[in-house]
């Protein structure tokens, strides 16, 4: 078993706004979400409202409206090419790196701030919204340097503090016991599953609020997958997690809310139990039961 | 009609036709032919490489033997002995040059700063001029002696060479089967000991002259006139000191001359050290030829260093920009432009260097606001800087293309991971992309260096072609001096040397050094690339 991180995680300077404040701030253009969220007492921190997204001339997302709740795991599912990764990458503006992409319409607000406004500091945004990729991608540096990378970018140099965060992050990612004796060894020398957990540790080292995971287990064997899932269970108490997965059991096991996409459209978004036991749409039912093309 | 079907028989086993169809051509199958064709091509390449290497070595190897003979004659004919005196007079010349430099400074100060008319200045400097004249006259008796001795030893050397030539002639006649004519060739025998007797016999005269010289020189130093500008007095003091040290060295020269013997052997290694560390490359000289590679090697290295200093930031910087920052449209514009540079024939670049760049750089160097640059202003249009700038142009496409490749090989995932952790573009480039591709970039630089070291036309046209070790005393200003290079000297002199002569072979050895240098550079580059492949995994 892995030790849970000590409760000293709350060292981030700006405290996130409280839930009622957020609910009150949701988009006036789409009162339904705000109303629903407020009425059910949901704490929506990412408010995706009527989003269209384009790769050059091709539209990948159509009118997506979705509220992601704080300290919950939200799963995005759907057949290949339906736009899950695209939506995920919109949330920390990773799509900016691809030439010719644009948000055609709608807004994405985090804590009520429209992250596509020109005055938004993308670097600051990405510190708050971490990401774990489908293919594990540790830097060709030591394990220690992989984890401290984000912190050093922010100018943290204090060796003791760095050591402390490395240990905390590795424990948080359930990797500490396996690598504590070789922190100076290359991150590329780890196994695939360990590399992926290293990437998770790297993401949580900068203490984001939201962690985006794009099929984090697709390259892992069942044992490593189980470890990462267990880890997600532990992280949910401190982070808001959005996870893309093709594995229905995984979505059912790990997530609180599930969104089903099809051809760039959001078909259904509800509690995970709802989606898997009592879906409202025939397409959803066909997909989750595996009868889908 | 219905036939009764025959009773079912077991079906014959299906034909399993997987045998090769043998299509033969001159007794070879198609596969064999293809293999022979490509194998043959590879073989030709290997054989050509081997032939070139063997040829270089064979032609070059004879040099060291010939050079040893060359050094032996230098000693046996007494040239070395006379050079003791020559060096002594040369050192005196350096002192008089110091004096005239001092005068120039003084004149500049008086006319430019104090705005005094030239006549008046000349009048003020009359005592100094008188002193300088006396100073330079002190050496005259020694010079006279030197020129006598020079004539005598040159005669000995010529005699020896004529004898050698005769021997060669006779050997050839004998080989052609003409013994009668061979006998007719008269060969003097030379006994160096007797020939050198008058030279060595001049030692007492030398001693007397040298001591008189020393006495006069030192006496003269007591009556040095003082210069009008006090700021030059330290320099005058320095001259006195230099002159005293110079005179104090005379007894050592005498001792050297007394100890000298024309029979001292020339050890075999001396021919190598004389080549590798020789500070002079002097050919077709009336006195003595020297084949020292140092001035050429230093010239090549300096020009290459300047070229790299310019090309590395440009090439690597452009590669980083194109690979990481530029939009697709910019990429499509910049890449072909840089690659197009390599389409210029280097002789055209050299031409451009002479006609435009050399002139432009010299003009630039004369701008007052650039006078802080080392060596600026300068007057030699063709120098290390001019050649280095053009060579940089040649190296940039190589460095750019290879460095861009190396950057491209960095997995995109690293870049995304870095951005996702909140890195800026600059941070991502300096902390992730460049370190991950560093060995690729280094090998790109090395290959650029290889390109530059081997480049011939540009340096031949633009480096100034002065065969001398440039003056390093004023630091970086060395880049404004003209030099000659290894490639340049081969291209320039190979056409006019006699095949098989020592000069011809010396050029081959220079080529060999160049070859080894390029080989080392390429080897290092490959080694680094291999390590880089491993580290990226
Ligand atoms: N870089 C790109 N340029 C152009 N079109 C793209 C790009 N990336 C994705 N697309 C298109 O956008 C659509 C959505 O792609 P996306 O990667 O979001 O799908 P996905 O749901 O993540 O699929 P998968 O489950 O296979 O990962 C697809 O039709 C895809 O072809
Ligand atoms: Mg995807």
Structure description:
The complex is a heterodimer of chains A (293) and B (537). Chain A is α/β, with parallel strands linked by helices and 293 residues long. In chain A, 37% of the residues lie in helices and 23% in strands. The model of chain A is unreliable at 1-39 (pLDDT under 50). By secondary structure, chain B is mainly alpha-helical. Chain B is built from 21 helices and 4 strands. Chain B has a two-stranded antiparallel sheet. A two-stranded antiparallel ribbon of chain B has the order 3-4. The relative contact order of chain B is 0.09. Chain A binds chain B through residues 92, 94, 97, 99, 123-124, 126-127, 130-131, 133, 135, 137-141, 149-150, 153-154, 188, 199, 202-203, 206, and chain B through 327-328, 411, 413-424, 427, 431-432, 435-436, 535-537.
Structural class of chain B: mainly alpha
Q: How many whole angstroms does the radius of gyration of chain B measure?
A: 35 Å
The low-confidence runs of chain B, each spanning 5 or more residues with pLDDT under 50, are: none
Percentage of residues in helical conformation of chain B: over 70%
**CATH structural class of the largest domain in chain B:** Mainly Alpha
The SSE string of chain B, one letter per element, is: EEHHHHHHHHHHHEEHHHHHHHHHH
Strand content of chain B: under 5%
Q: Within the largest sheet of chain A, what's the order of strands? A: 6-7-8-3-9-10
Average pLDDT figure of chain A: 82
- How are the strands ordered across the major sheet of chain B? 1-2
Number of self-contained structural domains of chain B: 3
- First-last Cα distance of chain B: 77 Å
The set of bound ligands, ions and cofactors reads: adenosine-5'-triphosphate, magnesium ion
**What's the total count of β strands of chain A?**
10
């Amino acid at each position: 078993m892995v030790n849970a991180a000590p409760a000293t995680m709350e060292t981030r300077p700006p405290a996130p706004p409280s839930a009622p404040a957020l609910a009150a701030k949701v988009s006036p253009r789409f009162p339904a979400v705000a109303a629903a969220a407020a009425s059910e007492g949901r704490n929506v921190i990412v408010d995706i409202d009527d989003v269209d997204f384009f790769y050059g001339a091709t539209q990948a997302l159509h009118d997506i409206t979705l509220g992601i709740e704080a300290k919950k795991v939200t799963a995005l599912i759907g057949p290949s090419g339906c736009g899950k990764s695209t939506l995920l990458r919109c949330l920390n503006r990773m799509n900016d790196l691809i030439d010719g992409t644009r948000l055609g319409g709608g807004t994405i607000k985090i804590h009520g701030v429209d992250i596509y406004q020109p005055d938004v500091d993308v670097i600051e945004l990405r510190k708050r919204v971490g990401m774990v990729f489908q293919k594990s991608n540790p830097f060709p540096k030591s394990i220690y340097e992989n984890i401290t990378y984000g912190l050093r970018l922010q100018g943290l140099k204090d060796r003791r503090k760095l050591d402390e965060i490395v240990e905390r992050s590795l424990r948080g990612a359930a990797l500490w016991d396996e690598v504590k004796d070789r922190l100076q060894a290359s991150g590329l020398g780890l196994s695939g599953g360990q590399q992926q957990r290293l990437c998770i540790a790297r993401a949580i080292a900068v203490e984001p609020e939201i962690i985006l995971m794009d099929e984090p287990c697709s390259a892992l064997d069942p044992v490593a997958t189980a470890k990462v899932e267990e880890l997600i269970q532990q992280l949910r108490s401190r982070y808001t997690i959005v996870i893309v997965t093709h594995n229905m059991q995984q979505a059912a096991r790990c997530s609180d809310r599930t969104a089903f996409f099809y051809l760039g459209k959001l078909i259904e978004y509800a509690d995970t139990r709802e989606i898997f036991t009592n879906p409202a749409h025939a397409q959803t039912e066909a997909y989750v039961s595996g009868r889908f093309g | 009609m219905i036939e009764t079907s025959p009773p079912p028989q077991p079906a014959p086993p299906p034909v399993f036709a997987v045998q090769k169809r043998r299509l033969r051509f001159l007794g070879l199958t198609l596969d064999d032919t293809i293999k022979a064709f490509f194998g043959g091509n590879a073989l030709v390449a290997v054989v050509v490489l081997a032939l070139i290497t063997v040829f270089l070595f064979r032609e070059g190897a004879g040099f060291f033997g010939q050079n040893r003979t060359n050094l032996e004659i230098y000693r046996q004919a007494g040239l070395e002995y006379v050079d003791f005196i020559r060096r002594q007079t040369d050192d005196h010349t350096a002192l008089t040059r110091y004096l005239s430099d001092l005068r120039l400074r003084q004149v500049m100060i008086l006319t430019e700063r104090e705005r005094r008319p030239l006549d008046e200045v000349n009048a003020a400097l009359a005592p100094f001029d008188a002193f300088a004249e006396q100073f330079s006259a002190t050496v005259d008796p020694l010079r006279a002696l030197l020129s006598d001795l020079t004539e005598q030893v040159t005669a000995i050397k010529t005699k020896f060479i004529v004898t050698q030539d005769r021997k060669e002639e006779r050997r050839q006649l004998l080989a052609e089967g003409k013994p009668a004519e061979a006998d007719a060739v008269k060969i003097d025998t030379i006994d160096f000991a007797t020939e050198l007797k008058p030279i060595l016999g001049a030692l007492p005269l030398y001693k007397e002259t040298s001591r008189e010289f020393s006495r006069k020189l030192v006496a003269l130093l007591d009556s040095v006139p003082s210069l009008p500008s006090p700021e030059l007095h330290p320099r005058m003091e320095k001259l006195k000191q230099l002159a005293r040290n110079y005179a104090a060295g005379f007894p050592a020269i005498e001792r050297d001359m007394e100890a000298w013997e024309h029979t001292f052997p020339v050890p075999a290694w001396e021919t190598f050290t004389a080549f590798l560390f020789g500070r002079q490359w002097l050919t077709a000289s009336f006195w003595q030829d020297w084949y020292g590679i140092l001035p050429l090697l230093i010239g090549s290295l300096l020009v290459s260093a300047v070229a790299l200093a310019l090309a590395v930031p440009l090439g690597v910087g452009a590669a980083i920009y194109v690979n990481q920052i530029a939009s697709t449209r910019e990429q499509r514009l910049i890449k072909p432009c840089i690659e197009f540079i390599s389409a210029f024939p280097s002789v055209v670049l050299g031409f451009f260097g002479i006609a435009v760049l050399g002139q432009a750089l010299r003009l630039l160097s004369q701008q007052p606001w650039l006078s802080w640059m080392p060596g600026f202003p300068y007057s030699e249009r063709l120098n290390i800087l001019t050649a280095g700038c053009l060579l940089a142009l040649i190296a940039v496409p190589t460095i750019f293309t290879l460095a861009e490749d190396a950057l491209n090989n960095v997995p995109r995932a690293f870049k995304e991971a870095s951005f996702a952790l909140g890195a800026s573009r600059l941070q991502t480039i300096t902390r992730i992309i460049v370190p991950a591709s560093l060995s690729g970039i280094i090998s790109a630089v090395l290959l650029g260096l290889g390109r530059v070291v081997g480049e011939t036309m540009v340096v031949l046209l633009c480096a100034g072609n002065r065969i001398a070790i440039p003056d390093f005393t004023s630091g970086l200003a060395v880049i404004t001096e003209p030099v000659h290079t290894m490639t340049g000297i081969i291209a320039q002199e190979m056409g006019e040397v006699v095949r098989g002569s020592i000069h011809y072979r010396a050029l081959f050895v220079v080529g060999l050094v160049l070859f080894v240098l390029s080989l080392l550079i390429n080897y290092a580059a490959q080694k680094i690339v291999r390590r880089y492949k491993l580290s990226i995994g």
